[in-house]
Amino acid sequence: MDSLVDFSANPSFPEGIPTHPLEIINYKLLLANVKPEVERLWHACKTLGFNLSSSVSVESTDGLPDSLSEHGIQPEEVFEIGSQSLRNLPFEEKLKFLHDANAGQSFGYKPPGANLTNASGGVDTVEWWNIAKDDVRSYPEVTYRTYATPINDAMDKLKGFVDKSESVSRTLLKILNDKLCLPEGFLESCHAPTELSMSEVTLIRNPGVEEAPTFSEEQLAIGAHTDFGSISLLHNILGGLQVLPPSTKEWIYIKPLDGHIVCNLGDALAVFSGGILRSNLHRVIPQPGPQIHWDRWTLVYFFRPHGTCEMRALVESEDVKEAVRESTNPFPHGISAIEWFQRRTKYFHKDENISAAESWKQAKGTEHGEF
User: Fold this and answer.
1) pLDDT tens digits for 298-320?
2) Which residues contact 274 (CB under 8 A, 6 or more apart)?
């Protein structure tokens, strides 16, 4: 069944399943620079790297909006684009826009089973579209590539989603810049809006099944990973997202909450901050309980540094410099954000010419205990 056909009929997240609590951050209070709320965000970013943003609003000329409905991010409209481009489009048509994973390019269509989920050769069960921010903003001019008709027809809606997601991401970035004691605007300069980046909108569908399978590590929807960029803004309807909390060996669910965005920090901020900020391991498994029968739809905005930005610890901050001195992990230098992204994208892809174990190793990010 399709959760987008009748959203109100979606089964609730099952009772009795342990879930990991996330900090619920009021975005309106962040915009107003309310110190206790800023400190709660800062704590979440240093511990798990995940938090939930509620009352997500974008500042306007009229002042601060009062409710969620005024934030300008309308995931329902973009979910519908996913329905048209994933559920309704013939598979053969989608394959015309296949992403070039061997070149480390993510933009385009990724079919189920194309990506590794572990070092043993397990593959994913999801399909998705990755739509480049720069293609959305330059449309009808092509920056990276073309897309299927349902996506092209919805570029105005995608542009609105990208613009509001960028605004939220840059608000968070400014707060983290100040808390890291970096020079004013320094993190912003690593995400120059006028430069090309690998930032993208991702629409993901994990199909429901009639009978719930016995779960094994070979049946992951998306394998364990840290995100490749700086900030991920996640909208999802059904369960399946799990995190591995620090210093534990037990995966635990994140329960979706209506009207909230899951905000996750990626590799870039972990590296830029010298490890002060945390990019946490997470994965997606089949939907829990009765939700398994329903398609799981996910919408993510991946906010990333501009492509030529160097991935390095920003020792212009004394706090970051001290964190690097105390760290036992070497930090990268001399590699650009686009090179980091392309390496991880290429080796997450299942390639018959390289062993799964070697490919999984080459795809490593900050989750491997070393940079």
Assistant:
1) 999 999 999 999 999 999 999 99
2) 313, 314, 315, 319, 320, 321, 323, 324, 327, 331
∠ CA 311-317-271, rounded to 5°: 25
Domain that holds residue 332: 7-368
Run of H or E residues at 165: helix 155-179
DSSP E strands, 20-138: 24-26, 50-54, 108-110, 127-132
CA-nearest of 195, 225, 175 to 304 is 195
Angle between the N-to-C axes of helices 75-82 and 155-179, in degrees from 0 to 180, rounded to the nearest 10:
130
CA distance 210 to 216: 18
Question: Token pair of 293, please?
Answer: 């029968």
pTM assigned to the model: 0.91
Q: How many domains does the chain have?
A: 1
Question: Which domain CATH number covers 224?
Answer: 2.60.120.330
